[in-house]
Amino acid sequence: MEKSYKYFKRDISWLSFNYRVLLEAEDETLPLYERIKFLSIYSSNREEFYEIRVAEHRGVLMRKRFTEESDMDAEEVLADITAEINRQQDEYYRIFTEKILPELERQQICLYQHSEVEPFHQEFVHNFFNEEVFPFLSPVMIQAGEIRTFIRDRRLYLVVRMIKRSKKITQPDYMPCYHYALMKIPHSKVPRFIELPPHNGKFYLMFIDDIIKANLSTVFPGYLIDSCYSIKISRDADIYLEDERKGNIIETIRQKIKKRKLGNLSRFMYDRDMPQDFLEFICTAFNITKDDLVMGGRYLNLQDLIKLPNPRGKELEQPPFSPMRIPYLDKMESVFRAIKKKDVLLHFPYQSFDYLIRFLMEAAFDPKVEEIKITQYRVAENSAVINALISAAQNGKKVTVFVELKARYDEEHNMSTAERMKQAGIRIIYSIPGLKVHAKVAVILRKGSKEGYKRKNFAYLSTGNFNEKTARIYSDMALLTSNTDMITDINKVFAVLEGKITEPAFQHLLVAQFNMVPELKQMIRREIEQVHAGKKGKIILKMNGLHDTDMIDELYRASEQGVEIDLIVRGICCLIPGQSYSRNIRITRIVDTFLEHARVWYFYNDGQEDVYLTSADWMKRNLNRRIETAFPVLDPQIKQEVTDILRIQLKDNIKACFIDENLQNVFKKDQNPPVRAQVEIYRYLLNTIRSSSGK
User: Which of 438, 532, 547, 597 is catalytic?
Assistant: First the structure.
């Protein structure tokens, strides 16, 4: 009988990752505004977590109440989430108040933490409010039991309690009658932080919230202001498509996006200093239950910290990073000619994304190119990739783009870019019902034989999106190749997307829905067989998320049989280390300047070393509800490059930590020379370029 394995809860594991992000804000070796950036990232991550994951659990409970079914698991998970979020919230404000604010002060930067303005700033604040803020305020009086004003998600509001001015106020037996108002902070009209005039060599910054609070008597003449607090809500932001096969999917998604703004409440966040009777009134007025409540601090929406002005300049920021050039590609007049000779692996953001744009632009103008096929999951605003594809279509090339409309938060952008491409003559294929297409592939097809010579086709396969914006901050790898067998497989992927074939046979690619999971299991079991034969069994897996329990079980069994397994997992990791069945498994998490995004699978294979790069995590959704591709690294030199980078990351003892059996981020403490992987990878790639150039 098979052992009963255990797993970390998915959402609690994700919270462990986000807490690791928060810890970067405490790292005093980082420039101050880099630390502030991580506070912003932490807050933004948590916002999305409430909009998607918490909203999903809340939806389960709502259905339970409606159908009177039992789902204790959702209740337990929400209770665990609330407890962990509250713990992290305390840590967040500790870091902000005890670490960040004092450091700002040491740098002669004062961030006001109250609405009482120093005398030397009172005139400026008063004038700024009257001229720049007051015209955009639209306060609404709140009356319990009357029609409620709709509260937008992701928006910051102030709730105000006040007393009408009256001569009776001074009487000893006067009982105050409170009046309440709701006021949205006009985020699109004024910045969140206002720079005040410097004074005595110090710089001053102020939250727009506090500028408004300092001038409430102007907003509510005839009232005495009792108190004012910040609130915000999060709503369910996921799009649920009940039956994608019915109707027009574009119109269906468009309607769902409109309803997203009206989604069910997943969080009501409020200033923890708000008196209980004030909070109870607001909850009654807006039909908020105790399950909706999440305590915050004086300032909410702190993802806005990314916009905190820096009056001291670059000395407090991370030095700008300049992606390196690749001499081999630069000296060739043609990218096609370069990759016809050998495969080229690109490393973003260490190397320039420009080479992909050059690749597509060459395809757009090469008279021998007949057709371009590409997938679109997330692209940048004003995308150079889209512009290159439009140029190709305008030059008479047949261009086909598979657009994934269900890429969360990018649905509207993908629809608009798809429409723009369609108007330029590009053939657009939309989402497959029941599946998301997450593969990142492009293929360039050229005219056939000429005097017995068959021209090469070209392909681009990547672990990340066709997005020049994220390529500056996400760590990804991409392969440029003319390998005929690989391109044959890519063409089969597009044939599946076009509905031309349903049961493809792939020679090199691993494709989710088809051969990916069986091949992965076979490679894991092959390592077990090597151990049984008295040989070495070794697996290294780098990914963003590990959740699929079927695949985790495969790793547990391999560990039990003596296979050495190193996991580099940035985010969700449901595998529990430190158990009898996971004693040979180590889990490393790396959080640094660049978001670790590349997925790499390494299998020792008795020294032959199989290495795959992929867009797929080992999440249930990736392996079971998406079209994903994993592509082998066949060139020996590139394979060595990828394995060297994996080993550098495993040696990281500055930004890496182990995940222990209690889901704690345990920073590595060893006697080895200091290794910060992202810095060392840059040096490694630079040295590789120099050695290949003979420098």
Answer: 438
